[in-house]
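Supplementary Text 2. Reproducibility record for the structural model of the 383-residue chain.

All settings were left at their defaults, and a single model was retained for analysis rather than an ensemble. We include the record here because the model underlies the residue-level annotations in Supplementary Table 4.
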Amino acid sequence: MDQNPEQTLNSTVKAWVNNTVQAPVDNTVEPPVDITGEAPVEKWNDVREVHFQTKLSAAMLDIASLQNPVSEDSSQLSDTMQDASLEGPFGLGPLVFPSLQRFNNINYFLISFCILSLSQGTISGLTHVSTGNFEKDFYLSRAEKVILTISYDLASLLVAILVAHYGCKGSRSKWLAAAALLVGLASILFAVPYLKYEIVRPVQDSEELCIDEEERTMPNCEENIVPFKSEIIIFSTIGQSLQGIAGMPMYILGVTYIYDNISTYMAGIYLGIADAAHVLGYGLGYAVGSPNLRPSFNHSSEEEVNDNFLLWQFNWFVGFLFATLLAWFTFFPFLCFPHRLPGAHKLKQQKEKDPLAFYKKLKNMKYGYNLQDLFHALWNFTS
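Retained model, structure tokens:
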């Protein structure tokens, strides 16, 4: 039982060595292996983490599915706010007078539009009557007659699509103000020849009928009787072209402006009144110009030819000047009307609830300002 003291010391040393050397090996190397691979607590944590990620991904999918309706609603709201922001007061830029806001409605816009249509109709009637005299008195060639006849329609054709495409993007009332300015300017161009030139002078005996004894047309006869024929034809052609250009903003943008600011069941009445104003103006112009009709100076007797032709020319000038003042009277009212009249966005919402069959096809289409969008709009319109 008794052990050698040296053996006891050796056993003590060995025990100490085993406790101090082997224990750190077990704590530093083996425990991490057990924690990462075998501990059930950590496995439970992994399961909880996966379950949490599944819920999070499902929630993200739900949010993604809700993004489209929210964006559509927000876009509709932004469009409504934009339409409402276009409704402004009656004024010229920053100059807004409260006393003039009584004119900021569709009724006064219709009155201004009817006055402008009346003016253009009057000019058309006067021009139609005067062109007949030109053809008799000026010995117009076939080409000159064609130019005077188609200049209005040709100018309208060239600008109609451009006015419709770009005019609807801007302020349509400002386009109508420009149209009023052009109508008055065209009327002045029609009136200038009657004030500046001697349209037809009395025929001399040697120039009677411009035909010689053998019934052949005398050379240079036209230049002798009407020395300013070329200038007069140029003024008339330019005036007709300006009339055609001015008519497109009126009958494209003006009509749509009225329709957008009035209810559907009243739109036909307002548009009919606007169209009737032009017809009335044409009749007025024809009635004013008819008393100035007379037998051609080139085919009248010597007793009928006198100095009254100056008074005759002055009457034509007064008729065109009246039409000019009538058109320019509407220039400033059209400048003062806003982009949209108050309440237009509410009318738009009501019309969108029950659109016409034609508008159902085009209501969701949006176009830009470049030429590519223009051709795309034409294709959708015709297809």
